[in-house]
Amino acid sequence: MDRRQRKTREAIFSAFIALLSARDYNQITVGQIIDKADIGRATFYAHFETKDFLLKQLCEELFCHIFDATNHGHPEHKHIFNCDAPDSVFLHLFQHLQKNDNNILQLLSCQNNELFLQYFKSNLRKLVVNQLPLFAARKSEHLPESFWVDHIAATFVETVRWWIDNGMTQSPETITEYFLLAV
Amino acid sequence: MDRRQRKTREAIFSAFIALLSARDYNQITVGQIIDKADIGRATFYAHFETKDFLLKQLCEELFCHIFDATNHGHPEHKHIFNCDAPDSVFLHLFQHLQKNDNNILQLLSCQNNELFLQYFKSNLRKLVVNQLPLFAARKSEHLPESFWVDHIAATFVETVRWWIDNGMTQSPETITEYFLLAV
DNA sequence: TTATATACCGAACTACTTGTTCATTATTGT
DNA sequence: ACAATAATGAACAAGTAGTTCGGTATATAA
What we know:
2 copies of one chain form a homodimer.
Chain A: H1 3-20, H2 30-37, H3 41-47, H4 51-73, H5 75-81, H6 88-99, H7 104-108, H8 114-130, H9 145-165, H10 172-182
Helix pairs in contact in A: 1-2, 4-8, 6-10, 8-9, 9-10
The structure holds a DNA duplex.
């Protein structure tokens, strides 16, 4: 990819994330993004069809780092997720979130938009399906699997939200414990 | 309140709800509302500061019917909520949702906006706090109460969402069972 | 019935946002 | 050096939010 394209794309993403940590997604305008990214209006629209597409692509890029190793089971990452402790997948997620490498926390905060949560939950569900045996003890045979998967994914999201709202004072290990106790 | 005011307010609410069941909240415009309600633009703004305020007030009106009896414990409604079966509060909520008297389901569907869910969860939390003994058996003493309350409220919302997404084929009794098994 | 208050009307208006167009300029990969 | 392509910036149409105001209809009270 052309270096100019790469730099522009990077500038847009970075401006977008900066704005997301300051304002609500819905009240961020394209004008604000291009001002902060210091690019022309036409350039923005050459890269992203709409603001929603920008969010979608940002999500894909963020989730790629967090979820891909688990979902597609890249051998070189397997040891991170599938080691002895059965709760290590979720522990790893919480640890990743705490580092907040790619400002994913700003997107998860409750003032932000439903679109992001949809992508996030959709990825989570895929992950949960792979980890279902983990929760076999808790699951009742009367519950449909899709209900159960949705429930676990939603509980994860709500756990993260609670963690953020309460200042993230707990360690990832403690939060993992909360999550597993709740789910 | 002046009859004219009442009628205008009613027309706005009813137009708004009709639009909500057809489109996403975010893409409903004030222009569409006043067209459907058949009122002047200035009149709308005399009643509601913004579209978000309209949603807020609609929520308050809807929730009033569903939650007030439980929260403030009006004696004349007590029998509905505090009868023998301990899960009757939630069963009653699910039954109320199934009837969809005031089109609350349209607002709960996932394509709609975060604002509504915030109000809904906020009311649910108050309800859950009053019903905490119900879940004493499941709760671990290691979990902070606020975490537990948030978790139960979120699980309720997600249960309703799953119910809607799956065509609401289950009876309120079955859904209540799912909810209590999950939480 | 009359008088007064007030809610509604509607049209115009400002300011802002979105998304597009296009001729010009700068940068890139080869 | 050159051809391809990305970025520029300014202008543009269309749509939206929210306000203003003089005039009209309706409610309420005497």
